[in-house]
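Before the break, one more example. Copy the sequence into your notebook; we will annotate it together after we see the structure.
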Amino acid sequence: MDDVTAHDNEHQELREEVRAFLAEHMPAPDDVPVDFDAYVEFLRGWQRRLHEARLVGLTWPAEYGGRGAPQAEQIVVNEEFARAEAPRVIGFMGLDVLGPSIVEYGTDEQRARYLEPILSARELWCQGFSEPGSGSDLASLRTRAVDAGDHFVLDGQKIWTSFATHARWCSVLARTDPDAPPHKGISYLIVDLRSPGIEVRPLVQVTGDPEFTEVFFDQVEVPKENLLGPLHGGWQMAMHTLAHERGPAALATQVQLRVRLERLIREAALVPRFGRPAIEAPEIRSALARAHIAVEGLRCQTSRSSAIATARGAPGLESSVDKVASAAAEQLVMAAAMDVLGAYATHGDGADWGISTARWQHGYLYGRASSVYGGSLQIQRNILAERVLGLPRSAR
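Here is what the structure looks like once it is written out:
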């Protein structure tokens, strides 16, 4: 028996559990709202049902609402949901990025307060790391938190803060020791976005969605119990958070991309190109082949990274490889979709062959951001060059 067959047999019971859940609860495409605010609320309800079925956060400890399951089981669930083209999980920022840092570094009180609402999407989270002028160079951030006895006073600005308009909590990196070296004087704060002195301004993306925001903090009081980890020790937590953003996110992405590419190949046989199916054109076959190679390479890379992270107990520098490979694969798949559609890529839905051009348009535009979110590709390559390959830092 080969490894793939053994793996499938080992998790067949879990696959059947997920398929049974989807057969009963999977919403019809027409049930998913188009309006962004309504869409977010719809997805909160969807994640709540997933939580009730214990199909989110499988790797989290059982006492916090997970199953204490190995990463392989989360991958199986992701695969089944991707194949069914189920709605996304709206609380991914808490589930995959910020929540693991609370599990790792939080106090018992913090875990009890925040983790279950993350799993159920009762409370959404956003990430307050990037600032104008301090995105890729995160250690140069200027947001400050001044010790005022039983609380901090927070002042500054964050940007590219996804879903802040709907989030209750924001994980904020702030400078708490202005005299320390850049990486040493930063703390990790859990900030209630309902606090006085906070302004959230939506930023509309090229997709038309107001998913991004900029957030302003003006004399915001943050209780001392909302400090995650040690004072001035936020850089370590930030690196833990970012490793989870890059590695596990790439795992989910490779599954989604495989499903999308399979659909694209089917649709390439339906789209007309000069009287023949588009898939018969040599340039289309080449574009699909390049996309397939990238997705397969990403699958192998994320499988390797997952095994290393499982053995180590946490993601490491290999997550930067995942990030680079994930962005390349996503952009190649979406570029291939535009090649397949050709002139029809500018059309709305309603073509005779029943393909959602709007879905591919949105995916292509959103995919451009994969070069930047979670750490720009240039920064990831620098990390790999300097910290993995041991190459000298370039002159600046």
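The chain has eleven helices and ten strands. The radius of gyration is 22 Å. Try to locate both features in your own notes.
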